[in-house]
Amino acid sequence: MASSRKNKSLYIDTEALSSLALVQAGLISPVNRLMNSAEAQEVDETKQYKGVPFPFAFVLAPNGEKNQKVLQSLKKDEVIDLINNGSKVGELTVEETFKISIEQRLENIYGTSDMHHPGVKNTMLRLGEIAVSGEYRVEYPIIQDNISRIKSMVTKTGAKFVSSMMLAANPLNRAHERMIRQAISDSDLLVIFLRKPFTSEGLRYDIRYDALNTFIDNFIPRSKVIIIPFENTYIFAGFNELILDAILAKNYGCDQLVIGKNHGGLGLYYDKNRLNTVFDHCRDIKIHIKTVDEYVYCDTCKTLVSTETCPHGQHHHVHYHSDSIMKLIQSGIVPPPILVRKEVSANILASLFPERFENLQEMHYSLIPGSGLLEQQSEEQFYLKLIELYQTSSLT
User: Fold this and answer.
1) Distance CA 385, CA 391 (A)
2) Are the C-beta atoms of 163 and 190 separated by less than 8 Å?
3) What pLDDT does residue 281 have?
4) Distances (CA, A) of 235 to 8, 16, 24, 192, 239
5) Within the chain, where are the H helices?
6) For residue range 203-212, what is the model confidence (pLDDT) as tens digits?
7) Distance between CA atoms of residues 327 and 335, nearest Å
8) Which CATH entry fits the domain spanning 8-139: 3.30.470.30, 3.30.980.10, 3.90.76.10, 3.10.400.10?
9) Regarding beta strands 52-53 and 225-231, do their DSSP bridges make them parallel or antiparallel, or are they unpaired?
C-alpha cells in the first residue's frame, strides 16, 4: 500500500496492526471498531460490550513523540495514514481523540500496573496518553489466510464439531500431547492456535511450530488437526486472557475451547459484588469451555496420569513445568523422554544448536550402531539415536 503524502501519519507497531486486523476481520466480535471515549469508559466500568463480556476498552493509543504531536493536531473526519515498518498499511478517519489513563489501562488489562510484571513493562513502552477512534481499514494478509485455512479444512473434512486449543508449546511436552489426543477424541477437528509472541523469550516460533508439526505428522491423524499461527498481542496477555481466547475461538468458527484446569484464567474473582468464575462470562460468549486435568508422570504408576485419579502423593509426581524443561533444552541437554518425546527433542535441539558438533559423522559412526553402510546423518538423526542409547537399560 503506497503512502499518500497529503495525509498525516500515525506510526503503529506490528502488535497494534495485528490487533486492528483481528477486529476488522470480525474475530473479536461484537467489537468491530475502535471505541470512542464514551464507549471506552462504559466498557472499562461494566466489562461488557453489546451484551458480551469484554474486559477492557479497545483503543489505539500509540506512543512516540511524533505520534503525540499528530494526535494533538487531529480534527474530526480527517483521514490519516497508518504506517508500520516504514510502509503504509491502512487509513483511519478520525471520529475523536481523547486522553486515557495509562496506569488505569494497565490495571484493566493485567490486573496490576507494577512495572516488575513483564506484560506491564512491555505495554508501558508502547502505550501513549492520547487515543484516537474512528473507522479504519488495514491490510494484514495473515489474518485472512488463517480464516481461509480453517474454512477449507472444515469443508475438506466435513467437520461438524470443531474444538480449539490455545497452545504456546514452549516447548511441546508429553502433557500437551495428552491434551491434544483428548481434545480430538470427541471432536471432528481440532484447531491448535499456536501462540506467536511479540517478544523473544523462549524458543523461536519457527522451532515450536516445526516441533508441533513433527508430533502431529507422525503420531496424530493429520485430518483431525490444523495449526494456526496466533499472534499473541497484549490484549490476550492479561489476566482476562481466557475470555478473549473464547471470543476469538468462537469467531473463528470453533464450538469448543479446551483448557487445562491449571490455567491461570480459571481463578475465582469478584465482579459486581458477586463471586464469579470465568465460566459465568463465557456462557454469554456461547462457546463450550472444556477443562482437562493436570497431567504428571507418576514414578509408581510408571505412566502419565491425571492428578485427579492418581492415588500416590505429589512426591511421586514429575510435573511438566515448561520453564524447567526449557532450561534443560537451552543448556543443550536432552530432556528425559517421559517429559518430551524423543522425536520432538531431536527436532528442537537440531534447530536450536545447528552445526553444534565438529566431525558429526565421525561421532555418529563411533557411538551409534547402524546398518554398516556409510550414510550421511543429520544432527536430528544423531540426537534420535543418542536418545535411544540413553534408554538402553541392560547396564543401568
Assistant:
1) 10
2) yes
3) 55
4) 27, 10, 15, 19, 10
5) 14-24, 37-46, 65-73, 102-110, 118-126, 141-157, 174-185, 205-219, 241-251, 278-285, 322-330, 342-352, 360-367, 379-391
6) 999 999 999 9
7) 10
8) 3.10.400.10
9) unpaired
- Which grid cell is 239? 489476566
Beta bridge partners of 80: 8, 92
Residue 361 backbone zone (phi > 0: left; psi -120 to 50: alpha; other: beta): alpha
Residue type, 65: E
Strand partners, 93: 79, 135
- Calpha distance 116→139 (Å, rounded): 34
Burial of 29 by CB count in 10 Å (0-12 exposed, 13-18 middle, 19+ buried)? middle
pLDDT tens digits along 288-303:
988 888 899 999 999 9
Collapse the DSSP code of 194 into the 3-class scheme (helix H, G, I; strand E, B; otherwise coil) and give the result: strand
The alpha-carbon radius of gyration of the chain (Å, integer) is 24
Cβ burial, residue 393 (10 Å; 0-12/13-18/19+)? exposed
φ and ψ at residue 27, rounded to 5 degrees = -85, -10
Alpha-carbon distance of 261 to 216, in angstroms, equals 23
**Cα–Cα dist 257/249, whole Å:** 7
The C-alpha cell at 244 is 478473549
Say what the pLDDT of residue 242 is: 84
Q: Which pLDDT score is estimated for 81? A: 97
> What pLDDT, on a 0 to 100 scale, did the predictor assign at position 326?
95
Helix or strand or coil: residue 79? strand
Q: Which three cell numbers stand for residue 294?
A: 493436570
Domain boundaries, the chain: 8-139, 142-295, 321-391
Residue 219 and residue 211 in contact, taking contact as beta carbons nearer than 8 Å: no
Q: Is the CB of residue 130 less than 8 Å from the CB of residue 72?
A: yes
- Alpha carbon distance, N-terminus to C-terminus of the chain: 64
DSSP annotation of 161 reads S
- The two most distant CA atoms of the chain are separated, in Å, by 79
Q: Are 124 and 106 in contact (CB under 8 A)?
A: yes
Task: Write the class of the CATH domain 142-295.
Answer: alpha beta
Total-model pTM: 0.89
